[in-house]
Design brief:
The structure is a single chain. The chain has 522 residues and is an alpha/beta fold. It folds into two domains: 212 residues, 3-Layer(aba) Sandwich (Rossmann fold), CATH 3.40.50; 262 residues, UDP-N-acetylmuramoyl-L-alanine:D-glutamate ligase (3-Layer(aba) Sandwich). It has 19 helices and 18 strands. The strands form two sheets. It has a ten-stranded mixed sheet with strand order 8-17-16-15-14-13-12-9-10-11, sandwiched between helices. Helix 9 runs parallel beside helix 17.
Length: 522
């Protein structure tokens, strides 16, 4: 789903009306109706609702929602933070259609008087004060209204975006911003919806009538939604067999780090691959083989330190024949001989690959040898690994995650999965996707190895749509983390929990892909 700027959103609305003949009044009606529908579906027991409205189009959306909720038997009180005479255009028209008597508040003094304060008692607030066209900071009457909302425990649904937020921001925001327990936005998300953590609950994107042709953006930025996963999580044909879903070869593991290779190999199977073979030092093969009986293993020649040696190169190349993808790196170590082996294999084996962990560190100061021209190479660095590859600091990466990932993907003609809060997936052409699943409980050793295996498993199943497989793996990986957070909590979550959570993650993704509204968790 495309992410658009606030300015592009205005252009989309104009094009929808001027080029495609959808009246702006219809767009406002549909927007307000979507908000009301969300309230009725997610908060059916709510009786009394207060709608805070500004004087612009965001307030107009709120007027429509208020009318629609009133028609469904809800007790609705509109608080207009302006003089009704200041309303213009569509908002003024929708104001005239309101049932009951809205309360017009023209100053902070009026807002704090008893009649208004008494009217604020409600089960739910709708925040329709300021929309995505607003540029912070907010002050005066609007700021005071936001403060009132924020000091209550009442659930708040933001219409379009929480009031006071900068819609174009791509980072967490501070300042006067309305608290939101959910957001209902329209047509396409803005950057802040994906990056700024503006709500503790879901963000919902409602289609209000703009055709796909009108949704144009120069950002080259998207958000992964379950709708992108439809093909990868669909039920399988009855005549399926293990050969239908690919064979992953994973090269990794070393003395003391055999578990990383085992988890990655099993993750490929949990993601749906038909077969998974782990090539690992012969001294740790028993550990890997004992992890799960479904894993196949191959013993590799090793160094005195218990890592895969360069002598294993010919055997790995032989094993690679007939495999759909090679994943290399989990637990493989940074031993100089092993690093040389990694670079040689990545350079010489012309097959799809996923490179992670010490497989990536092998290319520090050798990034010229890491290139995906003419084939699929996916790298899955965390910020530290990305910094080593890019020759900068971790702080530099975190300040410009998208820019650095785009630059590296373009220069090395590969797919970059830059892990972290709001993991980014970037194609060589610069088009990027942001993932909204996952949680802080996943900040524990081994979750990256699970992702490596999942990416390999998804590509093995979808060789002609490798990038779609990467998006699915990243989204489902975070979703499995969310499933298990709900089971064990953030503090107790460990990497192998994700393997347990994947079946339910697939189920959630299938169900969400069929929903009318696109949504993601805050």
């Amino acid at each position: 789903m495309k992410i658009v700027t606030a300015e592009e959103m205005r252009a989309i609305d104009r094009a929808t009306s001027e080029r495609f003949g959808v009246p702006s009044l219809t767009l406002m009606e549909n927007a307000g109706a979507a908000v009301a529908e969300f309230v009725l579906s997610q908060h059916p027991a709510v009786d009394r609702i207060v709608v805070f409205c500004g004087k612009g189009n965001n307030g107009g959306d709120g007027f429509v929602a208020a009318r629609r909720l009133h028609e469904q038997g809800k007790k609705v009180q509109v608080i207009l933070l302006a003089d009704p005479k200041d309303l213009r255009g569509d908002a003024a028209i929708m104001f005239e259609k309101l049932p009951g008597a809205p309360i017009a508040v023209r100053s902070s003094e009026e807002l704090n008087r008893d009649p208004v304060r008494q009217a604020l008692h409600a089960d739910l607030y709708l925040d329709a004060v300021l929309g995505t066209g607003f540029k912070p900071p907010v002050s005066g009457l609007y700021g005071d209204a936001i403060a009132i909302m924020n000091t209550t425990q009442t659930p708040i649904i933001a219409v379009d975006i929480p009031s006071g937020a900068d819609a174009n921001a791509m980072h967490p925001q501070t300042g006067t911003i309305a608290r939101a327990t959910a957001i209902v936005t329209f047509t396409a998300p803005r950057p802040a919806h994906a990056f700024s953590s503006l709500t503790t609950g879901p963000t919902v994107v409602a289609d209000i009538g703009s055709p796909e042709e009108a949704i144009v953006s120069a950002l080259q930025l998207n958000v992964i939604t379950p709708r992108d996963l439809v093909q990868t999580v669909a039920p399988r044909p009855a005549e399926s067999n293990k050969g239908s879903y690919g064979h992953v070869l994973l090269v990794g593991g070393s003395l003391g780090k055999a578990g990383a290779a085992a988890m990655a190999g099993m993750a490929a199977l949990r993601a749906g691959a038909g077969l998974s073979t782990v090539a690992t030092p012969k001294s740790v093969l028993g550990t890997v083989a004992g992890f799960h009986p479904e894993l196949m293993t191959e013993p590799m020649s090793e160094t005195k330190a218990g890592t895969i040696s360069t002598k294993a190169k010919n055997r790995i190349e032989e094993l690679a024949k007939g495999k759909n993808i090679l994943a290399i790196g989990p637990g493989i170590s940074s031993h100089p001989q092993t690093a040389n082996l990694v670079r040689a294999l990545v350079s010489e084996l012309q097959m799809p690959m996923v490179v992670d962990a010490d497989g990536l560190n092998a290319f520090e100061k050798h990034t010229d040898e890491l290139n995906g021209k003419g084939r699929t190479i996916v790298i899955t660095p965390h910020p530290g690994e990305m910094a080593r590859l890019a020759g900068c600091t971790v702080a530099d990466v975190q300040k410009n995650r998208l820019g650095i990932a785009r630059k590296f993907a373009s220069e090395h003609e590969l797919i970059v999965v830059l892990k972290g809060h709001r993991t980014l997936v970037v194609r060589p052409d610069g088009e990027a996707w942001v993932n909204t699943t996952g949680n802080p409980g996943m900040a524990t050793g081994g979750t990256g190895d699970i992702l490596t295996g999942m990416v390999a498993g998804m590509i093995a199943q979808n060789p002609k749509q490798a990038f779609l497989g990467v998006l699915a793996a990243v989204h489902l990986h975070g979703l499995a983390g969310d499933v298990m957070r709900d089971c064990v909590g953030e503090h107790s979550l460990v990497a192998t929990d994700l393997l347990r959570g994947l079946p339910q993650a697939f189920q959630r993704a299938r169900e969400a892909s069929r929903e009318k509204l696109a949504r993601w968790s805050g």
